[in-house]
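PROTEIN ENTRY
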Amino acid sequence: MTRAYFGTDGIRGTANRFPMTPEIAMRVGLAAGKRFMSKDDRRHLVVIGKDTRLSGYMIEPALTAGFTAVGMDVVLFGPLPTPAVAMLTRSLRADLGVMISASHNAFHDNGVKLFGPDGYKMSDEAEHEIEALMDQPLDQGLAERTKLGRARRIDDAQARYIEIVKATFPRGRTLKGLRVVIDAANGAAYKVAPTALYELGAEVFPIGVDPNGFNINDEVGSNHPGAVREAVLKYRADIGIALDGDADRVIIVDEKGQVVDGDQVMGLIAMAWKNAGALAKPGVVATVMSNLGLERKLKDEGLKLIRTKVGDRYVGEAMRAGGYNLGGEQSGHIVLSDYSTTGDGLLAALQVLAVSVASGKSVSEICRVFTPAPQVMNNVKVEGGGKLIETEAVKDAIKAGEKRLGSSGRVLVRASGTEPLVRVMAEGDEDALVRDVVAAISDAVSKAAKAAA
């Protein structure tokens, strides 16, 4: 079914341009409110958080107008990480949770992510139902004048999340004596992340904690680990933690300045939880992007790697269906379902620190869990990526690449769900061969785009 508004992670786009306009935001509020309003007489509640983008001031009141117009009460959190909104949706017994964010994108983009009353991201089916309701006339299904919703802000949302985060760190352990750099990407965690680490005992060196509406993810955060790496070396820190704009993903930098991606973090947590008997099932859920090296390491340890489509929503759905409590993405979305319903960068970082503290070993010693297979990805900037992938020329290039790599490698070509890109990835045992395959397929995509123009 064609999706008019929703992509792989909610609705996302350039602020004040379709589909990220005030009208669409209001339509989301109207439609989602209708979809989640039950027929009883109780007051219905939606909670709304946001990151630090300037356009959040435009989208938040538009959403609020939609929800209150159909009779839902609204609680506004202000800047708060996506996983915190998911947690508090469930904690406050809300009917719905909303996060206003475009995650790791630049400030000029924004988005809307929706969570059900259980704190999990919406299913494709629920999003389809909301989309159908969004195209109804604006004056259809409105509440009676005496039953309009009310909106209020609460001041303790950040404190609640900080306490939840601290409670996930092993009892009796402390970060005392550790020097920690935290890069909050000038985003949603700019207050909560440094505070939680400080209260756990660390000496904290914060960067990316001065948002101005325009600088979210701007040369800081998980997409730009150079900033946290520089700070780690400058302050002689034991670890660097780089979050993205809404803090649902993390990249670790060890004390030597080496970058640790989400695959290594998942491998580390999997080994630690296996040894502690904490894995709910003998396996980890990851996406098609995760490195073959992780899959091979888990197999050696008697654990399975279950792969899903790209997106932590799909990871979460597979975890729930299979009863797994650990999953994530190479990009740094780590889902620890014992604690959270979605990716949480700060929680994942604390699990890394917990292993370091318990073992007495440095982050560089514990975070080289497996040797990655050579993996290369290239983002080809084109419009209409999905159609280009289906052209004969691109399909032939993919088949040729797969044949060259043989049984020891793989090729993945997909259109981005959030940006005008085709992502071309290949991995195998020979780096030069992998690079050649990616270059050939990328060239085929670019030529197909020119031919279609």
